[in-house]
Amino acid sequence: MASAAEPREPRFSAVLREGERVTPLELFFDLVFVLAITQCTALMSHHPTWEGLIQGMLVLGILWWAWVGYAWLTSVLDPEEGAVRLVMFGAMAALLIVALAVPEAFDSLALVFALAYGAVRIAHIGLFILASPEDDGLRHSVLTLATSTAVAIVLLVAASLFDGLAQGALWALALFLDMAGPYLFDSEGWKLMPEHFAERHGLIVIIALGESIVAIGVGAANELTFGIGAAAVLGVALSAALWWVYFDIAAIVSARRLAEAAPGRVRNDLARDSYSYIHFLMVAGTVLVALGLKKTIGHFDGHLRAVPAFALLGGVAIYLLGLVAFRYRHIRTISHRKLAVAIVLLALVPVATLLPAIVVVALANVLLWALIAFETRLYGDARGRVRRSNAAHAS
After folding, report:
1. Euclidean distance between CA atoms 192 and 20, whole angstroms
2. What angle separates helix 24-46 from helix 194-220, to the nearest 10 degrees?
């Protein structure tokens, strides 16, 4: 029993994070983001036009930036202690409303989406303010972020009053200004746990890849023929290849470089650029692949239209281009092999509309697995040393 003389910690305080591992509450929080990603795929699937594709990417960008904010937050605060746990639950509820509004985010539920999104972001800013009472640098960074956040929310509310091009333009401006805030203002005041930060982003990539698996099941529509089964196997193989090209080496080396970067502006800028910004390309590419696979499974022996064909091949290309940018930001060298495969995939988009959908998925697999086989052989012993070192560090 605690003695009367022992001081009690306040029940509704914020506790700074001490450990590097992702907590169960963070994984629980991400489950709502899973639904939001699924809703983005559904939005584009129900409107398989270029306009629908742009709308889906705008919604995904807005959702991504909200998730990124909480990734930075929980790299400063322990999400399972004090008031933070309760506010995280409230943010989850608001994010759930956001996710449910996604299919009509440009129509009847535009205002609901904007207001619920505002609640998610306001909770985020409030927790950051709670975390920085004695840290002037962090408090300054939080207040500048609050400015760009407020502008974005106001623009989304204003967008709900319009439709068509004007509405899309306001969405794009809101997303641009919100994401540009941390780049335009001084980043030195931010804090983060590097291993936690890298792991959190790796897990969200896995969640995005999981959406491609879900899309295969949805596309099958409770049917199973030999053709659907073959297309499903090829879809899983494509998702596995996307996993491999990131998690085999790139994720390990980049996490180590983030941990070794000098604390302060250098580390914060690296985290912002390579994880907050560049990882969006990878997640967006994966969501596009999910859309392409969903359409492929349902029409495996037919020809894909232009938008699903771009989603499938262009999504893989965007994912690879994200990895090219990721490597360049870390070590200032370009992965010419990944760049070349991405260019070939984009060049194949017009051809893909002339081929059976299952053949298009097979071509994407051939290109990606050939890339993996070549790079695995090229890296040789160095790859083995990196992976063994990572396993030893994890244990």
Report:
1. 10
2. 40
Instruction: Give residue-wise pLDDT tens across range 351-363.
Output: 999 999 999 999 9
> Is pLDDT above 60 for 168?
yes
Q: What is the distance between the alpha carbons of residues 361 and 371, in angstroms, rounded to a whole number?
A: 16
Tokens for 59?
């919604």
Angstrom distance (rounded) from CA 243 to CA 356: 25
Summary mean pLDDT of the chain: 91
Give the pLDDT of residue 38.
93
Separation in Å, CA 240 to CA 140, 145, 205, 293, 365: 42, 37, 12, 13, 10
> CB 240: neighbour CB atoms within 10 A?
15
Residue 299's Cβ-count burial label (10 Å; 0-12, 13-18, 19+) is middle
Q: How do the domains of the chain map onto residue ranges?
A: 20-191, 193-395
Tell me 355's DSSP state.
S
Paired tokens of 335: 């992965």
pTM over cut 0.90: yes
Whether 348 contacts 313, CB under 8 Å: yes
If 0-12 CB within 10 Å is exposed, 13-18 middle and 19+ buried, where does residue 313 land? buried
Task: Report pLDDT digits (tens) over 198-220.
Answer: 999 999 999 999 999 999 988 88
